[in-house]
Amino acid sequence: MTETNKNILSVDCDFVKDSRSLVELIKFVLQYIDKIEDTHIVISQKHVDIYYILEPLLKNKKTIDVVSIDHHHDLTYPHFPIEKGLASSNWLGYYLMKPNFIDNAYWLSNYTSDPNAGVKCEDWITITKTFDDIAFDSFDYLFICESPSYATNEFSLCAYRILIEIITRLKNKDKFFFMKPTLLNHKYAFIN
């Protein structure tokens, strides 16, 4: 991590599997939320919508460090190869393939996450399973997604709603200020 890098925190609520991970996630986000500019927060249903944050940074030739809190690595999978374009399931791999863009990528996974599903993750990213390993002073951007296809328990669904409530109250803005329309629907799997 360098001084000039932009720090991105990406939270996929499918990470939350129980009450412990719900509390840990909320405590973690609360450490950083006050310092993140309102216009640098994006809330969406699908992970592909991180495009709204990453694409402008890529076009402006910024270098980033990204922390992805997620049950899945989102590098690439057989049905979602990077070569086809950007998808929720390969967003991190897609942007890692962009030259001089992502300096460091960290994945905070669950103990039940599969780090080798589709690809050998440790060749691409740093993997951790504890919030204590994430040593960032601040984040410049925050992305939160629900992942309704994967956030199938009450804790992950509650995490999404709680984070929206926290953000809207602390930033004193309506949730629609932060929410972006989903770029992909059920007919289209990739952004080219």
Write a structural description:
The longest helix has 18 residues, at 154-171. The chain is built from 5 helices and 6 strands. The mean pLDDT is 91. It starts with 5 loop residues before the first strand and ends in a 14-residue tail after the last helix. A 6-stranded parallel sheet has the order 2-6-1-3-4-5, with helices on both faces. Helix 1 runs parallel beside helix 4 (154-171). The radius of gyration is 15 Å and the shape is globular. The chain has helices at residues 19-32, 51-59, 91-96, 154-171, 175-178; strands at 6-12, 41-44, 64-69, 102-108, 126-128, 141-145. The protein is of the alpha/beta class.
What's the SSE blueprint?
Elements: E1 6-12, H1 19-32, E2 41-44, H2 51-59, E3 64-69, H3 91-96, E4 102-108, E5 126-128, E6 141-145, H4 154-171, H5 175-178
Parallel strand pairs: 1-3, 1-6, 2-6, 3-4, 4-5
Low confidence ranges: none
Strand order of the largest sheet: 2-6-1-3-4-5
Helices and strands, in order, run as EHEHEHEEEHH
Helix content: 25-40%
Between the first and last Cα atoms, what is the distance in angstroms? Answer: 29 Å
Could you tell me the strand content as a percent range?
15-25%
Describe the global form. globular
| Rg computed from alpha carbons, rounded to a whole number of angstroms | 15 Å
Total strand segments = 6
Computed structural class = alpha/beta
Assembly level: single chain
| Main beta-sheet strand count, sense and barrel state | 6 strands, parallel
Give the integer mean of the pLDDT values. Answer: 91
Number of helices: 5
